[in-house]
Amino acid sequence: DGGITQSPKYLFRKEGQNVTLSCEQNLNHDAMYWYRQDPGQGLRLIYYSQIVNDFQKGDIAEGYSVSREKKESFPLTVTSAQKNPTAFYLCASSNQQGSGYEQYFGPGTRLTVT
Amino acid sequence: GDSVTQMEGPVTLSEEAFLTINCTYTATGYPSLFWYVQYPGEGLQLLLKATKADDKGSNKGFEATYRKETTSFHLEKGSVQVSDSAVYFCALSRHTGNQFYFGTGTSLTVIP
Fold first, then answer.
1. From CA A78, how far away is CA A86, in angstroms rounded?
2. A42, A101, A110 ranked by CB distance to B95: nearest
3. Beta strand A10-13 pairing with A109-113
4. Which of residues 24-43 of B touch A (CB under 8 A)?
5. Does A107 contact chain B (CB < 8 Å)?
6. How confident is the model at residue A1 (pLDDT cuts 50, 70, 90)?
7. Quick one: pLDDT at residue A54?
8. Of A57, A114, B22, B67, which shows the fewest CB atoms inside 10 Å?
9. Record: contact B104-A41, CB cut-off 8 A
């Protein structure tokens, strides 16, 4: 089955530690995205990548970093510089061909930093 | 810039009631429009989409019609079930630039 996997489902870290969230897709999509969702809030774009070895900042990139070394993988690192990292993180991908460009989402990772 | 505005929740309905969740958009050109659903603790799932004016997207009893004249894409369902309880997001994308714009989400609770 094609889809997007995010691991782990729940992640706990101490303040001051960097943490990397995994996102893998086997949909052969060119574009991948990271969003942050806070309780009762909508989605805010952190970073996105349209091709391998290239990525752009979204609306809230400060305190985060990404890499795109392979088409199927787009890991997100939450650094100690992120002031309020506890949130639900969603990875998505889309195919830039054809019309519609719908995004497909992974199941999310809930990060708790104490 | 492009944006999506959807009605604020939470919305609480009795089972078998009629559902409308309003969504309006601002965009240059002719965007594609989407409704996504998010169940508790999960990612978003595409519910339906429409790629041009007057298109009607439908899935699982939900419908939405792309109205260019009113820049709207309201979500409707004739008879909701308890299992429809979730958060619903309206979204748009333009066919260039590969950017997505989400509304803030509307929480729906259906009571038996």
1. 10
2. A101
3. parallel
4. 32, 34, 36, 41-43
5. yes
6. low
7. 94
8. A114
9. yes
